[in-house]
Amino acid sequence: MDFQLSDEQLQLKKMVREFAEREIAPNVMKWDEASEFPMATVKELGKLGLLGVIFPAEYGGSGMGYIEYVTAIEELSRVDGSVGIIVAAHTSLGSNHIFIAGNEEQKRKYIPRLATGEFIGAWGLTEPGSGSDAGGARCSAVRRGKNWVLNGTKTFITNGHYADVAVVVAVTDKTAHTHGLSAFVVEKGTRGFRAGKKENKLGLRASDTSELIFEDCEIPGENLLGKEGDGFIDAMRVLDGGRISIAALGLGMAQGAYEAAVKYAKQRKQFGRAISEFQAIGFKLADMATEIDAARLLTMRAAAMKDAGMKTTQESSMAKLYTSEVAVRCANECVQIHGGYGFIKDYPAEKFYRDVKLCTIGEGTSEIQRLVIARQVLKD
Ligand SMILES: Cc1cc2nc3c(=O)[nH]c(=O)nc-3n(C[C@H](O)[C@H](O)[C@H](O)COP(=O)(O)OP(=O)(O)OC[C@H]3O[C@@H](n4cnc5c(N)ncnc54)[C@H](O)[C@@H]3O)c2cc1C
Questions:
Q1: Cβ atoms within 10 A of the Cβ of 143, count?
Q2: Alpha-carbon Rg for the chain in angstroms
Q3: Residue 187 annotated among the catalytic residues of the structure
Q4: Is 132 in the pocket of ligand 1 (CB under 6 A)?
Q5: Which residues pair with 111 in a beta bridge?
Q6: What does each C-alpha distance from 23 to 39, 42, 187 come to in angstroms?
Q7: Which residues are 273's β-sheet partners?
Q8: What is the DSSP string of 35-90?
C-alpha cells in the first residue's frame, strides 16, 4: 500500500494550487457576492486539461484517473468550492455520462469539446418532485417518428445556464419505473429547451444552479444515450464516480477551512498569548487534522479502486458521506476559532461555512448515502 502521490501527481497538485491561488483566490469574494459565474477561469481550466482529467487522450482528455481528478478538485475547492463544483458537475456527471454510456460517435462528437472547455456540460436528474427518489422522475420523452420529444422540468442543475450540452434523464416507459428511464443529450439552442430559474443560494454562489425546461423539445433519435430503459442504471454508475468528486469538493473545503483556522489561531492573541496555545483550540485543530486525513484516505481509496476498474458503490458513498460531514464540522470549528471575525466577510471562515453544506446534500444526501451503504453491507 502506497500512501504517497507520485511525482507526476505532486506536480499536478502544485500546478493546480498555484493556478487557484493566482487566478481564483483574488476573485473569490467578488464572484460570491455577485453570484458571478467565472467563465474566463473555467475556460482557462479547459486549456490546462482540468476539464477532462479522467478521459483518455484519444478523446481529448488528459488521460489521467480519479486520483488526479480528486487532487485537482481538492486544490480548486481549497480556494473556492464554487469552481470545484463547476468542474465536478461538468466532468464526472455531464461528460462522464456521455463517456460511459454513449456510443463511439457520441463520444467523438462531445468528449473532446467538453474535455477542452469548448463546451460546458451539465447533468439533469433531479426534478421539483423527485430528488432522493430519482426514480420518480416525471420529465417525459416520447417518440415522434425517428425523433424524441421531451417535456418537463429539471431542477437544481449545476451549470444549467451555461451548459452547451446537457444530459437529461426522462421517462420513456411509465409502466417500468426505474427501467423506464432513459438518458438523452440535448444541445443548447435546441428549440423547446431553455434554462429556467437561476437559484439564489446559501453558498457556492459563483456556481450556477438552474432549472432546465423542456417544452415539446424535439431531438434526433441518435441523441438517446445508452440503451432505452438504461438511463437510471447508467445514472447510478455515473454517481459512483460523481460522489468521489463531491468527497473531493468537501475535502478541499475542509482543508481550506483548517488552514484558515490554524493561521488565525496562531495570530490571534487573547489573555496575553496566541489562542492556539489554549488546549481547547489545539484540540479542535487536532480533531480537524485527524478527520481530514481520514476523509482523504477514504476518498483516495475510492479513487484508486475506480482507477483499478473496480465497482465502488459502497466506497464512493462512504467517502462522500464521511468527507462531507467532516467538511461541515471543520467549517463550523473554523468559524468558532475565528470568534466574531468568523462571522464577518473579511475572513474566509464564513464562506466555507456556507459552501460546505452542499456536500451533505448534492449527489445524494447523507441519509441516502447511509441507505446505499447499508444496502451494500447487508447484501452478503
Ligand atoms: C447546489 C446544488 C447543486 C445541484 N446540482 C445538481 C445537478 O447538477 N444535477 C442534478 O440532477 N441534481 C443536482 N442537485 C440536486 C440534488 O442532488 C438534490 O437536491 C438531492 O439529491 C436531494 O434531493 P431533494 O432536494 O429533492 O431533497 P429530498 O429528496 O426531498 O429530501 C429531503 C430530506 O428528506 C430526506 N430523505 C428523502 N428520502 C429519504 C429516505 N428514503 N430515507 C431517509 N431520508 C430521506 C433527505 O435526506 C433530506 O434530508 C443539486 C442540488 C443543489 C442544492
A1: 11
A2: 21
A3: no
A4: yes
A5: none
A6: 12, 11, 30
A7: 270
A8: T---HHHHHHHHHTTTTSTTS-GGGTS----HHHHHHHHHHHHHH-HHHHHHHHII
**Interacting residues of 250 by C-beta distance below 8 A, sequence separation 6+:** 77, 295, 320, 323, 324, 326, 327, 356, 359
So what's the pLDDT on residue 380? 73
Residue nearest to atom 45 of ligand 1 (CA): 367
Beta bridge partners of 214: 152, 193
- Is ligand 1 within 6 A of the CB of residue 157? yes
For residue 73, the CA-to-ligand 1 centroid distance in Å is 22
Coil vs helix vs strand at 112: helix
Dig out the grid coordinates for 269 from the structure.
492573541
Query: Could you tell me if the CB of 89 is within 6 A of ligand 1?
Result: yes
Kind plus residue range of the DSSP H or E element containing 338: helix 313-338
- Orientation of helix 279-307 relative to helix 66-79, angle to 10°: 150
Query: How many angstroms does the Cα of residue 266 sit away from the middle of ligand 1?
Result: 39
Question: Rounded to the nearest 5°, which phi and psi values hold at 145?
Answer: 60, -125
Which residue among 97, 156, 159 has the greatest number of ligand 1 atoms within 8 angstroms of its CB, and so is best to mutate? Answer: 156
DSSP string, 282-313: HHHHHHHHHHHHHHHHHHHHHHHHHHTT---H
CA 377/CA 343 separation, integer angstroms: 41
CB 27 within 8 Å of CB 46: no
The residue among 346, 189, 340, 349 whose CA lies nearest residue 260 is: 349
- Specify the amino acid at residue 376: Q
pLDDT of res. 1: 84
Q: Which three cell numbers stand for residue 136?
A: 420518480
Percentage of the chain lying above the pLDDT 70 cut? 100
Grid cell of 118 as nine digits:
469548448
Helices (H), 102-230: 104-115
Q: Which residue's CA is minimally distant from atom 25 of ligand 1? A: 131
Structure confidence at residue 158 as a pLDDT band (50, 70, 90) = very high
359 alpha carbon – ligand 1 mean position (Å)? 11
As a whole number, the mean pLDDT across the chain is 98
